[in-house]
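Hydantoinase/oxoprolinase family protein
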Amino acid sequence: MAFRLGVDVGGTFTDILLVNEDTGETHRYKTSSTPEDQSVGVLHGISQVCAAAGIDTSAVKDVLHGTTVATNAILEQKGSRVGLVTTRGFRQVLQIARSFVPGGLAGWIIWPKPEPLADLEDTVEVTERVSTAGAVLTPLDEDDVRRQLAKLGRNGVEALSICLINAYANGSHEARIAEIAGEVLPGVPVSRSSVVLPELREYERAITTVANAYVQGQVSGYVRNLDAQLANAGMDTQLSILRSDGGLVSGTVAADNPVSLLLSGPAGGVTGAAWAAEQAGYTDFLTFDMGGTSTDVALVQNLQPRIGRETTVGDLTVRATSVDVRTVGAGGGSIAHVPPLTQALRVGPQSAGAAPGPASYGRGGADPTVTDANVVLGYLPAELAGGEIGLDAEAAAAAVKTIADATGLNDVERAAEGIVNIVNENMFGALKLVSTQQGFDPRDFALVAFGGAGPLHANALGKLTGAWPVIIPPSPGVLSAYGDATTSLRNEAARTLVRPFGDFTDAELSGLLDELSATARETMLAAGLGDSDLTVSYSADVRYHGQGFEIPVPLDYAAFAAGDGGGFAGLRQAFDKEHERLFSFLLDNEHELVTVRSTVNGPRPEVASISLDTGGTDPSAAERTSTTIFVEGSSVEAMVYDRDRLLAGNVVPGPAVIAEMDSTTLVLPGHTAAVHPHGSLLIRPVQDPKE
């Protein structure tokens, strides 16, 4: 039998999912993350889940991993010292950046501009120049290159990035500088903009290439270490890493292009949510992934997540394809506090993390967190993660009491409910970023909630958004690991053109798409996939002539291949439709093709769906005990159910708590949770407006 492992490392927990490829049977394990060395928690989880399944670790042939190593290196500012080589006259490219200041009125006064990832003292200019058409205007001065690289060597740079003006049109000068760097700076990893991001706009290309170099040391070191640890554990396995766009790449490729991994973890959750929603019969939905440190949300239409061309982590925005995920610092470990100046309760973005964790974990934490508030309200059982973490209700109450005293409530339960209400509003704000602010009504979507803490807050978020049903997938706490284990290899190739539609015929663009497809296929074929295993999709960044931004639009390859003019006509119509949806107006300007790209996907692994035994509507056979919870300002009696004993067709009336190994679901009064035959819980109001 062959087994594959999905591994998702979060800020608080590491989730492991073992899948039997022959039967579809799954085993899951949840353990505390080890921030000092993530591989420690990963190896511990792997050994435990294999033991639970009764197999030797050597039976695992594929490890599919969503990682936050690159993300954490950016957030914690622990990347390499990066040197930047650019064209003479453009040394301040990172300092000038873009004239955008986040925040509202007077944001320019209070916003501290972040320092560039490559210091000005580590930025050098070389003599060369290439035109936008790729013609060499000024030959590369190799003696100058050697002098400038030697200067960076004396500065002690640990990684090198090369971003020359117009290198997207001709990368030969960058390639030659990289060769010289191999002689002058031996052992220093090199990132070239013509490889990392061969697209228009020197600042976006520069910051993305520098970010790639900044995290490359951490990511490559982690990948090598994890590979070695897996080998030491007797596992002859293929390690693949999840990219920000939801596709997989080999560990080697990931180490060379780590900027594509900045949203690796959240992308796995969206992929897993699409699988669960499809099983439950829904194609349009919002995803709500609440973990211990943060909450990630996204919008999915027709089972396809919206893909963006920018990735933002902290203050850094780079040009890299990623699932359009928005993140807020709201999780189970988010710390509640009352600033002395305002005396107004705040929750997050600071987090207690995995160490020391919430006060209720009994590991030395004293700050009141969202998890502690849920313990006080009676929403959580006595143990989490299958018994690995016990909860100290007295410590939780003591921590939350500090909030009650600071706010003058003098009531621990009301203070705890205030903490939960505020964190719910914070997450509602994130959901609005991917729905109403993008022109979508959340009431037209379902809401898929997962992560260790997501199901606990999902019913409340359903009330806030009006998105019904709220879908709680099977094993919601490890759904991101499920997404990692059930996604496919992916690669893409792109080319910047910046030419009006009228400069092309359908046949000319079809030929270019064929070239890009062949380039993107190379890596996939080298990974052992057959040509018949691959599927190809195409997209283009389009704008009106004179605009300073583009909108990504899918390309219909068959229409262009037909060569009768229907390709550009369809692309023009698709762009106008999307532009009107986003901005409510159209222009008469000529349409302009900026960038085209080809995306190649490998086959998606076949994993058998869950199929529950059928029962009636009465869920009483799954009752565990009764408890008292505090909800909507008063104490009420609620039944606690064992999710593993619920049958298809059971309907759980609220108020209720549904407990399982990796998560806990709260069903509020006036709502019910119906058990779907494929294992999901479908929460709706008793009077569901969609029914």
